[in-house]
Amino acid sequence: MVAHTEFPAQVSHHKIINNTQFVECNNEKIAGNNAGNDQGNTHQQHGIRATKQNGAASSGFDNVSGSKRSNYHKEEECSLFVAFFTFLSYGVLLFVGYIKEFFSPVTTKEKNREDIEECPPFTTFTIYLSYGVLFFVGYTKEFFYPPSTKEKNREGYVPLYIGFESFYTRNVYRRIQDCWNRTICSVPGAEIDLMERYTPDYGWTMKLTGKTIKCINAGSYNYLGFAENNGPCHDAATQVTKDAGLTTSSPRIELGTLEIHRRLEKLVSEFLGVEDAITFGMGFATNVLNLPSLLGPGCLVLSDEFNHASLILGLRLSGATVKVFRHNDSEDLERKLREALIHGHPRTRRPWKKAMIVVEGIYSMEGSICDLPNFVRIKNKYKTYLYVDEAHSIGALGPHGGGVVDYYGVDPKEVDIHMGTFTKSFGAAGGYIAGSKDLINYLRVTSHAQVYASSMPAPVAQQIITSMTIIMGKDGSSEGRRRIQQLSRNVKYFRQRLRQMGFIVYGHDDSPVVPMLLYLIPKISMFVRELTKRGVAGVGVGFPATKITGGRMRFCLSAAHTKDMLDKILKEVDEVGYLCGSHYSTAVRNSQPVEW
Fold first, then answer.
1. Where are any strands of DSSP class E within 25-166?
2. How far apart are CA 90 and CA 489, in angstroms?
3. d(C-alpha 338, C-alpha 433), whole Å
4. Residues 318, 280: Cα–Cα separation, whole Å
5. What pTM did the predictor assign?
6. pLDDT tens digits, one per residue of 22-39
7. What is the rounded distance in angstroms from the CA atom of residue 413 to the CA atom of residue 326?
8. What is the pLDDT of residues 546-557, one digit of tens each?
């Protein structure tokens, strides 16, 4: 047991550390039988001595005058020598990594997808060179002008905000931050209004000009075009807002469950073909707050290397042992799963409490569709659970919009835990978990999202109900089927045209997420800026959201896009591609016209 010594609040950290009576306790031994000694007790903790005698307590250090106190007010800066070797160590590590991956590049190919082209060697070299120059300039600048890490009224504290992430933000992201986090002032439908910005201080702050830029929206997750401010979804949500208000301000397990939530969960379970479902007000939290309820220490998880951050965070919070397998590679998954089951827990060698495979339906950065039939086969062979995150695939894949399960024609009962969100195909917010009735009843009691988070607002629930009813055709129309087919046509047309132009495109031919490889940070920023000037709003993605050689433009297609809109986007992309030299593909181009 460690004793706890308290000091007066007015005694500063520097007084304790720099006091002449600071005593090393390595050679001190305190007898336990001196507790009743009239001369007092002396306690030693972390080299600090406190004396209690005749009921009077002494802090063990002298009083310090106000003038002397000012000597400790200024926080000591890191020495130039230490700063130099800090930057040198980062430089050596990065240089070694660049050289290693230049001669042994990490593959980006998916299993059985030999048509995916790798980054050209010379381009790989220029990527590393550009990052090397940026880092070298940043390290040199901060060596001579180190950034201040001081906080007001925090004298003596270790800096809270410091690390490579802050260095990267200051020296790389700051220069091009106008390409991200752009402010909009309209519904993110087929077209979008961007608020024009400028920076008066080289990227440290952004200010609005008061003008707007109307663009074709090629960056929002509006797969089926339900992000609308008119129509049946809008009218139904408006009426529910008047009837039920905006929110219950309470968790589901207390006063937050309304009849509309029960209707929504019944509809979701019917849509997915499972026994029951539970819904939550936030898609990210659906993974983060439910995985710890299903997994714990002693459990084994096989996770795809490109799984979403919400899955990674949820698995970390669960305490389970996570083994990562190569992206969409069922052979690597089976090999690692078999070895883990044979050897058991790495410390105790005892059998795992349970094993689970965690994958996504469509991967939001790669545009690839998971190899679900093989994952189901492995799951049945080794008696593991299968967790499928259909955030991007539900509504956007399959003849009925039922996601990757519908796309492959897999029995929904073969997937133990269905997870998805309502933010993409349904134009709403929140997420769900679906499966057996026992699973859902268990989550209703144990899920942190049920106990602590506020329930889904009633208008949001109504938006989902109306859009899902249209997709299922329960409104008596064929509008849902038309949107699904329109999205499928748009995706195939857009992808084939990009390849025909000479761009490297990743992902599956049926995926509405279309990554187009640009590799270099300057090209990403140039693409985003030039497309915006030409009336196209796209999303650029680079390190650390992707690997360092994986910079890209990511287009998200929608059923709301017309052929004229797609042709406009393709025309501007082709022109900007020639401006910055981004036609990297060496594959033979198909000269035949692409039909829409």
1. 41-45, 48-53, 56-58
2. 48
3. 28
4. 19
5. 0.79
6. 344 444 434 444 444 444
7. 26
8. 888 889 999 999
